[in-house]
Amino acid sequence: MSGFDLTVRGGTIVTASGETAGDVGVKDGVITQIAEGLEPGAEDIDAAGKLVLPGGIDGHCHIEQLSSFGLMNSDDFFTASVAAAHGGTTTVVPFAAQHRGQSISDVVKAYRALAEEKAAIDYHFHIIVTDPTEDVLTKELPPLLEDGFRTLKLFLTYDLMKVDDYQTLQVMEVARKHGALIVTHAENNEMIRWATEKLVKNGHTEPKFHAVSHPRLAEAEAVHRAIILARFIDVPIMIFHVTTREAMDEVRRAQEAGLKVYAETCTQYLVLTSDDLDRPGGEGAKFCCSPPLRDDTDVEAMWQGLADGTFVTLSSDHAPYAYDETGKLNAGDNPTFKQIPNGLPGLELRMPVLFSEGVKTGRINLPKFVELTSTGIARLYGLYPQKGEIAVGSDADIAVWDPDAEKTISDDMVHDNTGYSPFTGHTITGWPECVISRGRIIVRDGKTDMAPGSGKIAKRELSDQAKPLGRIEPEMDETKNFGIRLLD
Ligand code: URP
Ligand code: ZN
Ligand code: ZN
User: If both were cysteines, with which of 33, 65, 144, 459 could 25 make a disulfide (CB 3.0 to 4.6 Å apart)?
Assistant: First the structure.
């Protein structure tokens, strides 16, 4: 007997830095040995012909979150865990979302309680700050940030969620002091408001006008502003769901200037376009998300950004609303684009779509796939090396991937609770045949063995990427006797 609880033998181990043949031995939920020729453990998985990947980490997904309009996501922590696991994802970073007037400590407690009761994979949270009162800034956030909540999310749009530039600076200052990272939804609210009013006034209310109401320049402007504000305070920033060439150029320019500016794009922006919003019978509502789907040239640009390192991760931005009166059709069967809640389901298909459309087509290689779906996000959010790696000492979160399995997506084959998939009709090559969370086999051959509450909150460390640069803007340095250090 080898003494391992579990072995995964005979596969090709893929990490963000390369591919090797080898067996993985697991004891007490942790990888304890990697070598060729390991003796089988109590449970043994034959991975011959398969890829052995670190379990995926989805760094941007909305689970059991109440929207500012009072609508609940269609997934709870259990259904979201099941969907994620079916697609190879073993850790999620959803949100604890403050609404105005709420205590952030209470909000975090409430979301933690939901996850403790129902999550069946591991998790942590970004904290959404919509109401940065003095108490929130000075009393509530500091202990949470010291306790491992290392990301603060700011919306620059959505009337009931957005913070203004002054509030943004206030929250950035708190983040900087505690080594937290700012993550942001960056679109210019007033440009969207102006375009929306014009469209509605002129009777242009079908779902396809959702894309027109969110001008591409509204994204570029807000991304630019968010980066400038972060540079001013010297705090690292992650730009969520980049969708346009112009916004990506803003990110690139900042990165080339040596700033700690990170970005992601999401699965839907790689394969869908604004044409999908014009599907007949109001079905375009299923494709309303913000920022909206763009055009073919943006799709190509997003692929370029993944391949060349502009994006550190690919997220799902899973924000599921059923296509019924509880969600997309809450305002009736024929809603205006303004009445359709924003968001698409995508937790399960994030890794399969990227594998099929990215690795299989040669747009990215296997190590890049691992970096984008797991390792890169673990490093950025301080989960590494417990998560995001196949190495001795890391949690045994593993996806055993069949690179040749073929599936055609349909609404009823996905496992979330939304009732439809925006990727229905797409044929995917490559799928995880076995998924392991801390040494437990949670999915095998399409069947799950998952218990609500078996997921755990992951540990998060201060990440190097989230540390301030320590670079003071010339006009702010001490020689002018007015340095940001003096403000600390
Ligand atoms: O449309 C989207 N993305 N909905 C979810 C909330 C957000 O903006 O990320
Ligand atoms: Zn967003
Ligand atoms: Zn989102």
Answer: 33
Whether the pLDDT of residue 405 is over 90: the answer is yes
Q: How far apart are CA 151 and CA 143, in angstroms?
A: 13
pLDDT, tens digit, for every residue of 352-380?
999 999 999 999 999 999 999 999 999 99
Q: List pLDDT tens digits, range 133-174.
A: 999 999 999 999 999 999 999 999 999 999 999 999 999 999
Q: Which two three-digit tokens encode residue 46?
A: 């034959």
How many Å apart are CA 242 and CA 219, to the nearest integer? 8
- Rounded to the nearest whole angstrom, what is the distance from the C-alpha of residue 349 to the centroid of ligand 2? 19
Q: Directed axis angle between helix 77-86 and helix 104-118, to 10°? A: 60
Q: If you take atom 9 of ligand 1, which residue's CA is the nearest one?
A: 317
Residues forming beta bridges with residue 447, ordered by sequence position:
444
> Could you tell me which residues come within 8 angstroms of residue 224 by beta carbon, excluding any fewer than 6 positions away?
250
Best probe residue, ligand 1, of 69, 290, 315, 350 (max atoms within 8 Å of C-beta): 290
Burial class (CB in 10 A: 0-12, 13-18, 19+), 125: buried
Rounded to the nearest angstrom, the distance between the alpha carbon of 60 and the centre of ligand 2 is 9
Report the nearest atom of ligand 1 relative to the CA of 67.
6
Q: Where are the domains of the chain?
A: 56-384
Does any ligand 1 atom lie closer than 6 A to the CB of residue 343?
Answer: yes
CA-to-CA separations, 309 to 100, 263, 271, in angstroms, rounded? 36, 9, 19
Element holding 250 (H helix, E strand): helix 245-256
- CATH topology for the 56-384 domain: TIM Barrel (3.20.20)
In 3D, which of 124, 109, 174 has the Cα closest to residue 461?
A: 124
Unique residue bearing structure tokens 């890169």: 376
Whether residue 481 is predicted with pLDDT greater than 50 in this model: the reply is no
Instruction: Give the per-residue pLDDT at 2.
Output: 84
Ligand 1 contact via 395 beta carbon (within 6 Å): no
Mean model confidence pLDDT for the chain: 96
Pull the structure tokens for residue 155: 């919306």
